[in-house]
Amino acid sequence: MAQEIRSAQDLIRLLRENPELRDEVRRYVLTEELLSLPALIRDLSGNVVALAEAQRRSEERLDRLEAAVERLAEAMMGLQQAVAALQKEVGTLSNVVGGSIETDLDDVLPYIMRQKGYRVLGEPRPISFDGEVDVVLPVQSPDGRHLWAVAEAKVRLRRGDVFHLAAHLGDPNWREMMERAGVSPPYIPYAYGLRVYPDAVSAGEATGVGILSSRGEVLPPKEAS
């Protein structure tokens, strides 16, 4: 039934009482973009909520990552301190072992010289050029010659150590430094090891360097040069 509209109030009342008419007027008055705006706002609100949740999860992961990095830094610091302490202990042990080996050599070398008929003219003393020669000992041979026994000490004596000492013995610069230190040729060369490997003995046979262990002479040296 048609209704007469005399005022704006009549139109408002009519629109309020007729939802179909209200929807029709809305479609006529509003554009499609405006009509779809509520749905867009709902979608945008949902996206904002999802974005906020994703940001919250990202912040939680970042917090966990920062905590893990802090724990790793603490662990690395502890590891560095442990390594430094270990290096210190190894250095101390190395010094102790090195001193012990040289002490053993101080005992073994004079004993061997006397057993071979040499007269010991002084105390064994340390000498080092680049850390290679550990002990020298002045001796007199049975025929009256004055010589120096020179010995290098290693915990584990291998062929490379023997060849290294042999190379020094043939090096004029090395001999010159030895003479400046008061240690003049001829030399009686020995390589000493707490543990002597078979290849060290073979190297001694090839080079003429004598081999010593804590038990005594393993291989005699060639004639002094």
User: Kindly, what is the distance between the CA atoms of the first and last residues, rounded to a whole number of angstroms?
Assistant: 140 Å
Low confidence ranges: 90-99
What order do the helices and strands follow?
Answer: HHHHEEEEHHEHEE
The general outline is rod-shaped
Question: What is the helical fraction, as a range of percent?
Answer: 55-70%
Summed up, the helix count is 7
Largest sheet: 7 strands, mixed
Number of strands: 7
The whole-number mean of residue pLDDT values reads 81
Radius of gyration (CA) equals 48 Å
Beta percentage is 15-25%
The SS-based structural class is: alpha/beta
Can you walk me through this structure?
The protein is an alpha/beta fold and 225 residues long. Helices cover 60% and strands 18% of the residues. The protein has 7 helices and 7 strands, in the order ααααββββααβαββ. It has helices spanning 8-17, 19-29, 32-35, 37-115, 159-169, 172-180, 198-207, and strands at 119-120, 125-126, 135-140, 146-157, 187-196, 210-213, 216-219. Strands 1, 2, 3, 4, 5, 6 and 7 form a 7-stranded mixed β-sheet that branches. β2 and β3 form a beta hairpin. Mean pLDDT is 81; it is low at 90-99.
